[in-house]
Amino acid sequence: MENSKGRKRVVLLGATGSIGESALKVACDIPERMEIVGLAAKSNAQKLAEAANEVRPESVCLVDETRIDVLRRALDYQPRIFSGEVGLLEIACLTNADMVLVAIVGTAGLRPALAAIEAGKDLAVASKEILVMAGEIVMREARENSVHVLPVDSEHNAIFQCLEGKRRTSNIQHPTSNPFGAERSAFDVSDVRRIILTASGGPFRETPRKDFDSITAEQALKHPTWNMGPKITIDSATLFNKGLEMIEAHWLFGVEMDRVEVVIHPQSIVHSMVEFADGSTLAQLSYSNMRFPIQYAVTWPDRVPNTLPPLDFSKLSKLEFFTPRYDDFPAMNLARRAGETGGTLPAVMNAANEIAVAAFLNRQVRFPDIWRIVEEVMNRHAPVAHPDLDAILQADQWARNEAQGCVKSRNR
Ligand code: NDP
Ligand code: MG
Prior knowledge:
The chain has 16 helices and eleven strands. The chain is of the alpha/beta class. The chain has a domain at 8-147: 3-Layer(aba) Sandwich (Rossmann fold), CATH 3.40.50.720. 43% of the residues lie in helices and 14% in strands. α2 links the parallel β2 (34-41) and β3 (59-62). The chain binds NADPH dihydro-nicotinamide-adenine-dinucleotide phosphate (NDP) and magnesium ion. Magnesium ion (MG) is lined by residues 153-155, 245.
């Protein structure tokens, strides 16, 4: 769905964040292909107004109702203003929008994402947490409403590009040697042997385990290759980000968890790879700038010129690949377990991680406590299979309470 000139009309949820900023740059870079018709944020009224004044969407939404006056005063035109969580759902369903880009940190993007799907909007998903939490529901709803789910996360956008040509053209499900994939995926992944997610390894890639206890929030917030919001930056340091991405890949592409692997690639140039049955591997490469995957999600299936620099191979001295330190960074094993068990366990892992990350940033727990808290909460959970949205939200809340308990017990 798009207007006659091939220009996508996009609602951007999370406009004031790191992905939001990159998405606004994409819109300014390719105005003939991307028009922002709605912008939403939580409470940063000033920054939301500045963005709106620049791209002039007809609707804006600020979830925090107490800041609406600040927003109104800072706007230099009169868009339609939505507010509250209801406003977020409304702006996600704007009649004149083709696509909703969900770039809200955490799980608050889930309901608006589902509302957008129901309203027939294509979804560009940066918020991996919502696929981890409710991948089965999001993908099923998307299939039933015939909307596309386009990955913005750089690894998944890379895989999406490597699977180009593998998209099923009809809704009729043909039996294949891989019934799991056939049932769930928009792609025919029967000849995909492995999906290989690349990971930079984060700032502690080479830090000895014995030094983990003394890692500070300041150190963990310094990512070597990507400039991102604080939550995902800590997730990149613990490698929970990669764990979340393993489950994200499982749902987006309909591959079982044991076909999703991770390789450490410190240069962040190869954004992920797909190995096929014949032993060939396809990879996608670019400099590490989120404008690349955001643009592709918006212009797909087309590719259009932009002002981003292409790779200069004469300046790339090396591309390295290493096996992850699974025992020292347990997040990936925890995520594999959560993804393989399925049901409510991934939501529980995600929620416990969110609480543990916040506690680490508040200096309440130490860096390795993040894994310990998540594992403790996962061990206490009795997963519910094929949960509906209520069961997922209940498990999410339960895990948050349990994780808070773990944080408190460490502070006694
Ligand atoms: P940021 O912390 O930089 O930004 C978060 C955005 O979400 C802000 O616009 C914030 O608004 C908004 N927000 C937070 N809570 C709510 C809420 N309850 N309702 C509405 N809006 C809310 O995060 P990032 O941009 O780094 O990440 C966003 C998502 O994208 C995450 O899920 C992350 O995992 C994913 N992602 C990010 C990448 C990156 O490079 N940054 C790469 C790949 C994925 P306000 O400013 O008003 O608080
Ligand atoms: Mg990523």
